[in-house]
Amino acid sequence: MQRNHKFFSLIWWLVNLLLVGAVAALLYTSLWEYSVRSYLDGFSDAIVPDDAPPEQKVDYILAWMKSGPVHSTLPSPGGFSQRNPEVTLNYQQLLSICGTATNAFLNLARSSDLRSRRLLLLTPDRITKHVVAEVLIDGRWVIVDPSYHTLFRDASGQLVTRQQMKNPNIWRQATSVIPGYPSDYTYERIVHVRLTRLPLLGLNLRRFLDFISPRWEELIDWSLILERESFAMLLLSIFAVVFLLALRFLLGWYADRRLHLPRLHLRSLFSQTGRTLFSGPEAR
User: Fold this and answer.
1) Are 32 and 25 in contact (CB under 8 A)?
2) pLDDT one-digit tens code per residue, 109-143
3) Architecture of 51-227 per CATH?
């Protein structure tokens, strides 16, 4: 029994140490995300008028991306995060790659109060061949290709959706304004989240999620999680804190009800700390 108590004590202190680390990570990632949001708000305010209608806001963002940031090339491409908007917005080299260009566009669009999300075009083998964006304008999710600085329209000038882009005629009309636009960037196979990157689990996981809810990709803003590293780390730290708090509660219940081990409760610790800090000096 004593051995079991020692093992439980080890687990108890390990969980508490992990919880302290998770809380520290939560504080850090909260400041990180706040810093990124502040940076993006200032950046978007400089290039996008607040009172512009949604379509014009998209045009302003694309015009800035076409003119390019201050830096043209990366000094060391491998040393930079491609999911950090503070990087993708400052190097022309990254704005010419579909993935990082879409990352930059999505972050600026959100900071300009535009609802937007990424869209992956897949090969028959379900490998990503191109990345574009969708923006909600007048109740329709229309297609933007940030790497080609284009908001797609048909021959009549109407904005087009991903469903319309599956029509070969409309696809040709929309892409005819871009010389040399790759003919294989078509919309037969599209996803918002590519789960096949998860080894062994990806394909089966998609089938399971499609069975549970065919619209699961559109119920959550996956693009924000996948395209902004600071936000993804913030969510991960929140999950870690909640999970470890729940685990600590269960371990505490087990120690109190089954093992009958004395332990320091957080309430008692906070109470003792408060009395120590705020109580007046005692007369001797």
Assistant:
1) no
2) 999 999 999 999 999 888 889 999 999 999 999 99
3) Roll (3.10)
Closest CA to 106 of 138, 69, 145: 145
H/E segment holding residue 277 = helix 266-278
Give Cα 186 to chain centroid, integer Å: 25
Q: Is the pLDDT of residue 282 over 80?
A: no
List the chain domain ranges: 1-47+233-264, 51-227
> Residue 258 has which token pair?
């089954």
Structure tokens at 255: 């120690």
CA distance 5 to 75: 56
The helices-and-strands tally (H runs, E runs) of the chain is: 12, 5
Taking alpha carbons only, the member of 245, 277, 199, 257 closest to residue 26 is: 245
| Integer Cα distance of 225 and 162 in angstroms | 22
Q: How many CB atoms lie within 10 A of CB 15?
A: 17
Length of the chain: 284
Q: What is the pLDDT of residue 76?
A: 57
List the beta strands (DSSP E) in 42-172.
116-122, 128-137, 140-145, 150-151
- Which residue is it, tokens 């909640």? 242
How many angstroms from the chain centroid is the CA of residue 63? 24
Cβ pair 90, 40 in contact under 8 A = no
